[in-house]
Amino acid sequence: MSIFRSAKLKKEMDRETAEYISSLSFDNEILNAVIWVNAVHLRVLYEKGLISIEDLQKALNTLREIYENPPKELDPRIEDIHVFIEKAVSSASEYSGGMLSYGKSRNDTVATAIRIRAREYLLETALTELSLVETLLKQAEIHF
Question: What is the pTM of this model?
Fold first, then answer.
């Protein structure tokens, strides 16, 4: 249960409710982009002197581990991928994990991650179309 909810509710949320409000099924699509956004944000926090190089390295190592070995399935009570990442980074470096939301909102992170993923889709589509055009040109040369 999130810190916000645990402060408001005394009882653990049942699995069905957690699954209903969880965005994990959608978040997997932007997981890598969220990792990149957080990695860049942590580097900026380091450059501004807000976290130490040790905390930065621990946090980046954790993000790299998640990137290279993404979770197969997460408990829906985790709420979303952002909470999962924050908990993972906090377990490696409590201070860095707490600083992930410093200077940026969740909406900023999500919007940026969605733009990154949309750009990836557009590039993939353009490359596929280019391949199709090349194939059509080869066929046109053969038949005309």
Answer: 0.75
